[in-house]
Design a protein that fits this description.
The structure is a homodimer of 364-residue chains. Chain A has twelve helices and 14 strands. Chain A has 364 residues and is an alpha/beta fold. In chain A, the strands form three sheets. Chain A has a ten-stranded mixed sheet with strand order 2-1-3-12-11-4-5-10-8-9, with helices on both faces. A two-stranded antiparallel ribbon of chain A has the order 6-7. In chain A, strands 13-14 form a two-stranded parallel sheet. Chain A is globular and about 60 Å long. Chains A and B meet through strand 7, helix 7, helix 8 and helix 9 of A and strand 7, helix 7, helix 8 and helix 9 of B. Strand 7 (154-164) of chain A pairs antiparallel with strand 7 (154-164) of chain B. Bound molecules: 3-isopropylmalic acid (2 copies). One 3-isopropylmalic acid (IPM) sits between chains A (89, 92-93, 247) and B (193-194, 223).
């Protein structure tokens, strides 16, 4: 089989972590007869530098034509002072919106070998395995009206948080499906005691719940959720929430693991008649401009994002598991990039880490 | 001197923790010649039960006439299924808005004796002392338009996040003043890469910063702030942010301490010509309906809220310090209510904890 993949290395460490994925793709072609037809494109700062635009129509067309997109990271101090409308982030928001990637899957997983990296006590996070589902194309990120305006000599900044029933329903369905494949517990996070938009959210989640009687569903206010993530994160299985709350809570959950450099993510669109979905995969970590180009970055989150691609876009769950197992074995073997370095372990470069994953794959 | 205080015990454990404050007030009258003219009122569920209204005009008038208000806690399962408009929370939001309490001070403090209660490792939180300043009468909590509406057969829920320049400026000034009295570091939290409302927020904070050249000011996106609180909370001194972000981050920060039962808060209005401010003080913890009426609740957060009242409303910083020291001494002496119980310590009731604070006050 051949899969069309668009690679968008982006900025900072994006290109170097992406090169390690290319290796694994080559390995899969050779050993598993799964071929990738790879196109490369620009996004974020790299695209601003080349085209004065964080996401060109051409890149977007390539993304729409691909079976899946793999993104490195966008942004960096070089572009921080650009006006709001042409910042690197705009490229990311636009590609999500245009591709209709409404479901953002953000696992927060603690690898046994790295439990010590967390700032939380070992018993609180050992074995942690949460899936946060963040709505990604609606809510206050995209609501109209928005802007900064002067009225009677006073300036106001405003944004609109808006969700329609169908928007809530489709993300809720993904969440319940996900819960069914996991431990059948779903916590929906809202602020229904203050925000009417999330009163509707809660109501729709309740209604969808009727179709999933096996799932144990609960509702939690966002302030309490941010406490509970710190108090006892293992109480959660799947969490589903709005775009803005998901942005905040998924980063909090990611940091509970202590190893951001290990966390992948997936952003999925609606399934078409054939069951195929538009999809974009990216590591949770940022572009880390301070270490870019030095062969220091941790490529594992990007490799695990590629594994998610195999699982969710190509229905190649076994191959995804192969990569995930190889990553775990590399960690068990004591290899660490700088960001996850621990006493007594062997510090390795981006390249060596990538090579070691291939070596482990060869042993499986 | 005599100070007019309105006490609003509210729901759940509110009344019993409030009784311990009454004791300290009596002690202050006797030993320090500071007298409190106390009125009691209803709010939240208690007011709904009596008047079918979470905040009556009468209670509001009492609040406006008082020098300061002390609140216990509001809410509980009994009122959870009431319609949005007459829930207990509505009383709290209304009193904040009507009294103009735009500045919510939420310290996150780790007491040396309780450092083990945190789910975070000791070195990460020992000595933690953050002050979070949350804007409390604006933003998405109060913005118009809001509601749930049907358009072309589809229901939408919507809320408006709006801040005017003067609203941002006044909270920013409180934040910089606070930073000047502390370690002169201020972190303003926004989502200026996505929300125009917080582009204006950042701009105004930058402008106010010019009046406080000694304060080291930084800006952080809210998702990163929620990570940094978990990664290394001691990097922060004062944080200032919007109503919604403050709700989430201050609860996260509170939970880092591991002992919610210890955390006070203050909500302040603008200073009038005489320098007096409207003010409401309340513990961060909720109404804990599961243990209400059993003499099990921790009264220390409410006592510390009362200490904040002495400091911020009555300029009685020395007396505030007396209470804070008494609380610390009680903890050092090994007394604990159930919520902060540790091996080898003595478990005591709400009443005994209150008495012990008085005993310590007598020794100071
Ligand atoms: C870069 C930014 C616009 C983006 C977001 O807020 O969605 C990022 O924080 C993320 O979570 O992917
Ligand atoms: C009860 C609720 C309305 C309130 C808020 O969101 O402001 C509470 O969470 C708080 O932080 O005081």
């Amino acid at each position: 089989i051949t899969k069309k993949v668009l690679m968008l290395p982006g900025d900072g460490i994006g290109p170097e972590v992406m090169r390690q994925v290319q290796r694994v793709m080559d390995w899969m072609a050779k050993k598993r007869d799964i071929n990738f037809d790879v196109t490369e494109g620009l996004i974020g700062g790299a695209s601003i530098d080349a085209h004065n635009n964080p996401l060109t129509d051409e890149t977007l067309a390539d993304a729409m034509a691909a079976d899946a997109v793999l993104l490195g990271a966008v942004g960096g101090p070089k572009w921080d002072n650009l006006p709001f409308d042409i910042k690197p982030e705009r490229g990311l928001l636009k590609i999500r919106k245009e591709m209709g990637l409404f479901a953002n899957l953000r696992p927060a997983l603690v690898f046994d070998a790295l439990v010590g990296a967390s700032t939380l006590k070992e018993d609180v996070v050992k074995g942690l395995d949460i899936m946060i589902l963040r709505e990604l194309t609606g809510g206050i990120y995209f609501g109209q009206p928005r802007g900064i305006e002067e009225r009677d000599g006073v300036r106001f900044g405003f944004n609109t948080l808006v969700y329609s029933e169908p928007e809530i329903e489709r993300i809720a369905r993904v969440a319940f499906d996900m819960a069914m494949k996991r431990n059948k517990r779903l916590c929906s996070v809202d602020k229904a005691n203050v925000l009417e938009s999330t009163v509707l959210w809660r109501e729709v989640v309740e209604r969808v719940a009727k179709d999933f009687p096996e799932v144990d569903v609960s509702h939690m206010y966002v302030d309490n959720a941010s406490m509970q993530l710190v108090r006892n994160p293992k109480q959660f299985d799947v969490m589903v929430t709005t775009n803005m709350f998901g942005d905040i809570l998924s980063d909090c959950a990611a940091m509970l693991t202590g190893s951001l450099g290990m966390l992948p993510s997936a952003s999925l669109g609606a399934a078409d008649e054939t069951g195929a979905r538009k999809a974009l995969y990216e590591p949770v970590h940022g572009s880390a401009p301070d270490i870019a180009g030095q062969d220091l970055a941790n490529p594992l989150a990007t490799l695990l994002s590629f594994a998610m691609m195999l699982r969710y876009s190509f229905d190649l769950g076994d191959d995804a598991t192969l990569i995930e197992t190889a990553v775990q074995n590399v960690l068990k073997g004591g290899l660490r990039t700088a960001d996850i370095m621990q006493p007594g372990m062997a510090k390795v470069s981006t390249t060596v880490m990538g090579e070691s994953v291939i070596n482990e794959l060869n042993k499986l």
